[in-house]
Structures are given as structure tokens and as C-alpha cells.
Amino acid sequence: xxxxxxxxxxxxxxxxxxxxxxxxxxxxxxxxxxxxxxxxxxxxxxxxxxxxxxxxxxxxxxxxxxxxxxxxxxxxxxxxxxxxxxxxxxxxxxxxxxxxxxxxxxxxxxxxxxxxxxxxxxxxxxxxxxxxxxxxxxxxxxxxxxxxxxxxxxxxxxxxxxxxxxxxxxxxxxxxxxxxxxxxxxxxxxxxxxxxxxxxxxxxxxxxxxxxxxxxxxxxxxxxxxxxxxxxxxxxxxxxxxxxxxxxxxxxxxxxxxxxxxxxxxxxxxxxxxxxxxxxxxxxxxxxxxxxxxxxxxxxxxxxxxxxxxxxxxxxxxxxxxxxxxxxxxxxxxxxxxxxxxxxxxxxxxxxxxxxxxxxxxxxxxxxxxxxxxxxxxxxxxxxxxxxxxxxxxxxxxxxxxxxxxxxxxxxxxxxxxxxxxxxxxxxxxxxxxxxxxxxxxxxxxxxxxxxxxxxxxxxxxxxxxxxxxxxxxxxxxxxxxxxxxxxxxxxxxx
Length: 495
Description:
By secondary structure, this protein is an alpha/beta fold. The chain is about 35% helix and about 15% strand. The strands form four sheets. Strands 1-9-8-5-4-2-3-16 form an eight-stranded mixed sheet, with helices on both faces. The protein has a four-stranded antiparallel sheet with strand order 10-14-17-15.
């Protein structure tokens, strides 16, 4: 009978060989073994980037056949939290689920009564973006209050936060860092501190982005330390996005900064009690915090009396929240652990790809308008930026390269999108555009007008909806692919 350890080793050796032969097109763009792109084939806007290391990790975990979240998941949660510099990270099965868990956690009766989000309370968000940043607000019975977006950054117009505030009703701000561009965290944090509000950062498109501010300003907002691995000198505090608010979310769907196939995470930045609450909502709503397959870590499994249950009722079957089952699988976490090691190179690749596109399309500024990082006032030809007077800075690991067609251009955004499609160049709208124009929100307003609120006419979100698309910046894009994109766009805009 073959030795199981030797058999396992041979399976994994063959797995690596199979992956090297079959998956060469998915290797990082800078990998010398990457299969070259062929002219005329598709240039995706995003996709999986991996090597035989991820495939081996997935197969090795599957051979163990624990399947549900286990040792790989626990290790990935610790490693992600350590990378970000947060108290805890909890894996879930998608970024959308992460948003649902994050906002649900803030409804818990275990929180102080004055801060708990209850049905009818309001959560400020931005109108332009992805629907599952907003849908969980409605799903927990709260009211999303939409403010407008800036067409240049794609982020919320934070000067409208005060206009959106309703004393006694507003409990939180929940917004995404659009396309890997941090929103104005200094203004948002100041607003949340003034009114004692929660801040939920949807960081799904922005893992590896950072935000910095003068140390005196950071201290006034409660921050004195940098995130791990980040330093801008003694006069500034620099932190990863997803570490400034109270709770943040990640997506590990293939287009994102790292992938588990499906998957996401909820990060608890400072307050440890939010970890137990978020974990409860993720894990059926149970009160018990024991991992799957482990019993009685509290040493009083049969010593609790909660709700109207009899004393001694099994704590593993005691439920404090109306929760869900939103865990991913352990083989997914095994893939994620390998991907996390690649994150620094992925971050840099996205920055470089954005810069390549920006330089290559610079001559088209008369018909196209390009994104700027939040707090930047202009892009310089050498790749640097001019900055505003706030002293705050952003360093973007871009999820996409945003383009808006100017009103006086001789073509429309749709014309440009069709040309890109005709040349097999992946492109996307800025997700849902103005979300209140989407069928689901139109129906919601018709059924329950009180279920949402907006500040002003949201004209700039409409502008984004009508004029904007984005190209990819993911680390699978080679220089040849980027130059092909630049050539197609330049030719189209010049005809």
C-alpha cells in the first residue's frame, strides 16, 4: 500500500505541473513564464492572477477535506488583520456579505442604546456606486440617505454630510472608496466624531490604498500610529484604507486586489466587542463563539441563562441575533493566504498600470476627463500630483482607470464603450451609476417613499452615470496589452 504522505506529495507535485502547463495565461504580467498576449484576443478589465502556488494550496486543503472554515481560515484572518493593523478580520463568503454583516453588527442590542441602529434610523451613503454597499442598509430596516458624488474622484461630496445629517436619526456613514480612490477620510471622520456616528468603510475596491494626514490633525481624530509597513515621516500619520473607521469590508471576488474565487472579510478596527457581534451575525446569530468542531471554550457551555431559555441550555444553540450563515470554505482561505503574500506586488502593479494609461492618453484631455486621487488638484506629466491645502494625501492602488467623455466631445460614452467592445477591450460603467435610478430603488421609492432619502438633485451622480466608464488596472495586464488599449482609444478619439 502506498505511503499516504508520499502519495500526497506526488499529487501536489503533479498539481503544480498541471497548473504550470494549463494556467500560464493567468500568471502575473511580470512573470517570465507568463504566456504572451496575442493581438486580437480579449484584454479583460480584471481577472484571476495566480500561479501553481495557489492551485497547490487549494488542492492540499481539499485533500484534508475539512472543507468548512478551519485552520486555513483562522490563519488567513490573523494574517489579514496583521497586514492591515486592525484588531480582527472575519472571513465571509463575499464582499456583499461583508457589508451585510458589518451593518447588521451595528443593529445589535449588545451595543449602547443610543448608538444602536434601529428600524427607521438613517445611514448616510453616496448615490454613485455598487448596490451592495447600500442594499444592506435597507435590509436591516434603516434608511439610506444619498449624497452626491464628485465626477473627478468618483467619491462622495463630503461637504454634503452636514446637509444629510438628521439629529436623533442619523447613526452611521457607510461609503465605498471608489475604484481604489479613498474618499475624504479627514472630513468624514471629523463629521462622525462630532455627531458620535459609526463609520463603515467599504474597502472592497481599495485593499492596499493608503490615506495620510498631518499628525496634529490625525491626533485630533484619535489616531497616532501608522499602519504596519507605512511611514511618511514624523509629521504625518499614514494608514491603510479600511483602518480609519470602526468597521470595514473587503471583497475577494476575482477582479479585486486578491482573490479566493468568492469571499470577503469584515475587519474590526479597534473595538473588540464588535468582533463577537459580527461573528455572531456571520454564524447563524448564535451567542456561542466556539469555532466549528470545538466545544466549550468558555468552560460554561451548560452554565448560561439567556433570553427565556432554561438555565443550562446548550450555549452552542443559543441565538442572540437574527443571523446568517455566511462563512466561506477552508480551501478558499488556503488560496487567499498565498494571494495575500502577493499583495505588495499586486498593489504596485495596479499603480504602475494606472500611470501607464494616464501617460499614454494624456494627449486626449480635450475630449476625455481623467480621475484624480482625492485631495489632488492636478496630475503632472512626471507622474506626480499637485495637492490641495488640507495637508491630506491619498496613495491609490487603483481598482480601475476611470474615463469620462467631455460634454463637447464628438462622441458619447456609449460610442467609446462600443468601440472598446468591438476591439475586445474589457470596460465597465462605474457600477450602478446613480443608484436611485436603478429599478430596485425606483420600486422601493414607489412602494415605500420613506425608505430612502436624498440630498439635492444628485446631478453629478447622474453625470457619472451618463459619461463615465473604466478600464482595468489589474496585475495581469502586460505592457503590450496596455499599449494596445492606448492605441485603440487614441485612434478612436482622433477620427
